[in-house]
Design a protein that fits this description.
The complex is a heterodimer of chains A (122) and B (234). Chain A has 122 residues and is mainly α. Chain A is 79% helix and 0% strand. The termini of chain B are far apart. The chains are: A mainly alpha (122), B alpha/beta (234).
Chain lengths: 122, 234
Amino acid sequence: MIKILLLMLILVLAISALRIKSGMHSGALKKIGFIVLLLGGIVATLEPDLVTRVANAVGVGRGTDLVFYVFAVAFLFQLINNYEGRKRNNEKITELARRVALIEASERYGEENACQDVSSSF
Amino acid sequence: MKKVTYDDVAIIIPVYRDVMVREVVDAIPKKFTTIICVDDGSPGTDVSDEILSTRAKLVRHPVNLGQGAAIQTGVDFALQNKKINYFITFDADGQHRVEDVQRLVKRIKSDANLDIVLGSRFLGHAQNITWSKHAMLKFAIVFSNIISGIRLTDTHNGLRVFNRKVANNLKIHMPDFSHASEILIKISANNWKYAEEPVTILYSEHSRKNGQSIVNAINIAFDVLLSKISGKFK
């Protein structure tokens, strides 16, 4: 039962990822990582003993622990990714808002402070 | 000594929800012809309307971006005016004295080598300063001096004057109050010639309420360290 549930979950994940793919500008490395994660998930679901054997090979006691470690690393990676993305977005918002503010002010005060090449000041 | 003129000087005042902006602008002598108030997206139109009713020019952020961004916008706006050679940053809460502004301008105009002159409350007098604020500022000074590699007696003073060269290359990226440390790091990285001038800070009830908190200081330290590590400054 759990196997069916997990496989369905992975399938949903894969489909939703395919849907947003067109709008994403993430790197090829990230996509490969995602596919590896999906495939790993399918294999681990169908063959739990394999995970334990891999875990033992790299010096981890249980397969569950290995899955947990991979999950933790993936989560942290995503956290950093998010932080970077938000910072980039904030910079874009700042640039946009500043541009709006300067154009508006130039309209208000006219020639003396004419909006010359604003782009050079960014 | 040659008489110092002030018509090539722009006073830039970042404003956020400050109700004192009219008093601050009115206290500035008429010989300062250019005053720029940047309303950093204060809610409603009260702050912008108040600025418009003074002789200051209004630049309004459509959304709140932080004090560093507001200063940068003010500098960008002032740069468009070719007459302006010197740029002053000035806080909106009435903690700076106009006499100090004039001394800073005289100092930078009297020495052609100087690119930037920074106000220092510890060379001058800090009135009504609380011991916790004093301790925090001293810590900020040690921290900033280590990070930026230049030695100052006061690193988080809102009063500064700089020339066009500095204004053109400032490009503040840090949000909030971290820009003070960012400016110092830029001074060091660009080898700008700097000097300190004693100024008096008037800690009123109002500025105490609106000043930097300890929590803020931790935020600043975190932001600055992070950008230092990721090599954002250049």
